[in-house]
Write a structure and sequence with these properties.
The complex is a heterodimer of chains A (305) and B (294).
Chain A: H1 7-54, H2 60-64, H3 77-108, H4 113-127, H5 130-144, H6 151-175, H7 179-187, H8 192-220, H9 224-227, H10 251-260, H11 267-301
Helix pairs in contact in A: 1-11, 3-6, 3-8, 4-6, 5-6, 6-8, 7-8, 8-11, 10-11
Chain B: H1 2-42, H2 44-47, H3 53-58, E1 62-63, E2 68-69, H4 72-103, H5 106-121, H6 124-142, H7 151-175, H8 179-187, H9 192-203, H10 205-221, H11 224-227, H12 247-254, H13 263-293
Antiparallel strand pairs in B: 1-2
Classes of the chains: A mainly alpha (305), B mainly alpha (294).
Chain lengths: 305, 294
């Protein structure tokens, strides 16, 4: 009992340390707020800057016109068309496979070897860099199948690239549906498949759609995987072609190609305009994902999520 | 009647499960095909052209015409930009992750989350274009760098690009902690900041490791954004503001001109295989980190 501190001294020490701790807490809170806000400010600044750069380039003749090889004034009409065309093709392949695989893993597969291998494959596939996937597409579709550069080859490469992400979205959407709904459906005598198609999937469709549209936005802007598979050119005689076996330079690829390889004099103008169109499309996809997801959820479940 | 219906729905069930299983199997098939084909093509440098693996990995002399494709410059370039990105973007991302999980009021979350989703959606080339028109001129005017291209420009662009990955995953890591940890610490009189640094950060360590590893994976594989600002000179990084090249940028720069079956093509496929091996290693690290948590 020799080292008893006088009560008043102890309380002074405690108060000052409390004050120091509170100060540290306050400072840290302010700094974290500043860091988080800086992300929003930065993004807003990016958008304003891109609009400022590209606004004057967005003329009808630029958006709908044909690209030019050597002279100024080229447009991006076929490139925008190709971006949508490849996006459509990719979704036609990706959505059925990814949703089916996601349903199997989430609803049917028992824990075990097969499920683990599928999960591990999906995770690995998801980390493969897009340029590496592009080289795989080059090997298979251009060298092995002798297709040359084609929209279909590009779309199939993008299918492999986006399969895991969409599978994950499916799994998460299914996981959000409470088990009681499955039990209720099967308790009424339905099979598991009936429960999934008539009860679980309609409840999950809102989230699923949000995920699909967000991934669609990413497919729209994909570049590295397409350079070696869909190519760097558009067919000049019939640019708006539905034939999948033709080269199909997309808008994102066009932006990169114009900057790094092309010899047209108005590179900056085309780059600014293309970048702004890509940015606008990203925003459109993001808003559409939210609106569609909310509408579908309300429509199929009567709830507002 | 009922029996017929039941039999029919039973048959539908069997067919459906078969179809679903097939789709799941396709994922495995895809992975094996990509891995196998790239391993086959990416090792041709070593067994067709008889170029030694160690020289490929450690020689800085990338002289394909002389039959000597040393890739050390690109490997070091990739490591350097990735390191820059993770040193800058990693702590920043974790900080914002903490903010979202522990501090952000509802309205701020509603603002920040869509912003992060938009950042994910912005295409790589648009980041590259931003770097090219905004960052590179800035570096050119404010440093002694004659061009502005180089490690710093690429590193900053990458740091921004990996932010969404790191933020989202570290937020998840904090949210998955049991609430009792935080409550216990606060009840003992710790401030929020003390709770974060002394209780939550250590407890979330494995989840944060996953966030950083996947951030690294994104940075290693990123191609066009950095290809547009890195300068693509085949030389080791001579400082932050000098041009260099990375594995991904070298592939995109030289692949269009490489003929099928040439040494250059083989060397580029070897680089792609190396990137694939790095990605697989990082996935294994993620698995290890996750197993530690559970």
């Amino acid at each position: 009992m020799g080292n008893v501190v006088h009560p008043s001294a102890r309380s002074v020490a405690a108060t000052s340390s409390v004050r120091a701790r509170k100060l540290a807490d306050g400072v840290a809170t302010v700094i974290l707020w500043a860091m988080a806000s800086s992300i929003i400010v930065m993004l807003a600044a990016f958008i304003v800057y891109m609009v400022y750069l590209g606004w004057s380039a967005l003329t009808p003749s630029f958006i709908f016109g044909m690209p030019k090889q050597t002279t100024a004034g080229g447009g991006i009409g076929p490139e925008i068309y190709n971006s949508f065309y490849i996006l459509m093709l990719t979704l036609i392949f990706t959505v059925p496979i990814a949703v089916a695989a996601g349903v199997y893993i989430q609803e049917y597969a028992l824990p075990g070897m097969f499920r683990n291998v599928v999960q591990f494959s999906a995770e690995s596939l998801a980390t493969i860099p897009s340029v590496v996937m592009g080289l795989f597409g080059l090997l298979v579709f251009v060298y092995l199948f002798h297709w040359q550069f084609t929209a279909l080859g590009g779309a199939l490469t993008l299918t492999l690239l986006n399969l895991p992400a969409l599978m994950r979205v499916t799994q998460e959407a299914l996981a959000s549906v409470p088990d009681t709904m499955r039990e209720a459906s099967m308790g009424l005598g339905g099979t598991k498949w009936q429960a999934i198609t008539r009860v679980v999937l309609p409840s999950a469709i809102g989230r699923l759609t949000t995920g699909v549209v967000l991934i669609a936005g990413r497919i729209f802007g994909e570049t590295a995987a397409l350079i070696f598979t869909a190519g760097l050119s558009v067919p000049f005689n019939h640019p708006y072609d539905l034939n999948p076996f033709r080269p199909a330079e997309t808008l994102a690829v066009h932006l990169w190609y114009t900057h790094s390889e092309s010899i047209v004099p108005d590179v900056d103008q085309i780059g600014n305009g293309s970048a702004l169109v890509l940015l606008i499309m990203v925003l459109v996809f993001n808003v559409a994902a939210r609106v569609l997801g909310r509408r579908l959820t309300t429509h199929f479940t009567g709830r507002s999520s | 009647m009922i029996a017929v219906q039941a039999r029919r729905s039973h048959r539908t069930e069997l067919i459906a499960v078969l179809g679903l299983r097939f789709a799941a199997g396709f994922v495995i098939l895809a992975m094996v095909a990509v891995l196998g084909y790239l391993a086959f093509e990416g090792t041709k440098t070593f067994y067709v052209d008889k170029f030694p693996l160690w020289t490929f990995l450690f020689s800085p002399d990338f002289a394909v015409d002389a039959g000597h494709p040393g890739a050390a410059v690109f490997i070091v370039g990739t490591l350097a930009v990735t390191l820059f990105a993770i040193v800058v973007g990693g702590p920043f991302g974790i900080a914002v992750g903490v903010f979202l999980a522990e501090i952000a009021p509802y309205r701020m979350t509603q603002l920040l989350k869509p912003a992060i989703e938009v950042m994910v959606g912005i295409p790589s080339v648009v980041y590259g274009w931003l770097g090219l028109t905004l960052l590179v001129p800035l570096i050119r005017t404010h440093t002694s760098s004659p061009s502005g291209f180089g490690l710093a420009a690429a590193g900053i662009v990458l740091a921004i690009m990996i932010l969404p990955t790191v933020i989202t995953l570290s937020e998840d890591a904090f949210r998955s902690l049991p609430g009792s940890l935080k409550e216990g610490s606060l009840a003992l009189g710790a401030t929020r900041w003390q709770t974060i640094t002394r209780v939550l950060l250590p407890s979330a360590a494995s989840g944060l490791a996953v966030a950083l590893i996947l951030g690294i994976a994104r940075a290693v594989g990123e191609t066009l954004a950095i290809q547009m600002v890195l300068g693509n000179a085949t030389q080791f990084p001579q400082g932050l503001f000098a041009p260099t090249a990375a594995l991904t940028t070298e592939i995109v720069t030289d692949m269009p001109g490489a003929t099928e079956g040439s040494l250059l093509e083989h060397a580029l496929f070897s680089m792609a295989l190396l990137l694939l091996v790095i990605a697989m290693l990082l996935i294994v690290f993620v698995r290890v980190a996750l197993r530690r948590r559970s």
